# Entry
Amino acid sequence: MDENSSDLVNQTEELSLDNSSDDKSVDYKISNKASSKVDEILKKDASDESLKRYKESLLGAAAKGDLGNTDDPRRVVLKEFRTIFEDDETEDYICENPTDAEGKIAFEMKENCKYRIRIGFAVQHEIVSGLNFKLKVKRAVFKKTEKVVMGSYGPRSETHYFEFPRNEWLEAPAGKLSRGEYKCYIQLEDADFNKHAELAFHFKIVKK
# Structure
């Protein structure tokens, strides 16, 4: 393998597929130093058939020309907001196309309940490297911010999904002083601190 091929392997060696989620969504993880342009990755060393097949398997739909909705200039678009409750008797709160419902997303949850936040989002045009999920929760003087690395995602028409937390549950506070309305903000930011999507919502904690 020549020097140029070696450089490309260095770019793509951190690119992997994650099929562990129940919805079988595909998460693309790529080095922050690698090119985010799908065509550049595919064109480099195009004569090397084995490397070409390797890149196509990593890039998935994008390698076949599926770069999402290229008529939309945005690179990341929120498609779904969902609050999942551990208690099967409590119905999930679902909002499709949450960007259009900005400021109107509001729901209740019982104190001590366990829940997760799930977002569905589209990636368009190029690979988004090192995407971060940031959640801010505010109520009066109370303020909490959590941030977690989601990974890197390739463009495609199919929706990507991410749940926070991944393996545990958030727990609503309990007690008279904890009840009431909370303001929350979600922000998706890449490794270069570019903000790709933001969403505000409210929830109210009520007595069991």
Observations:
- Confidence is low (pLDDT under 50) at residues 1-35.
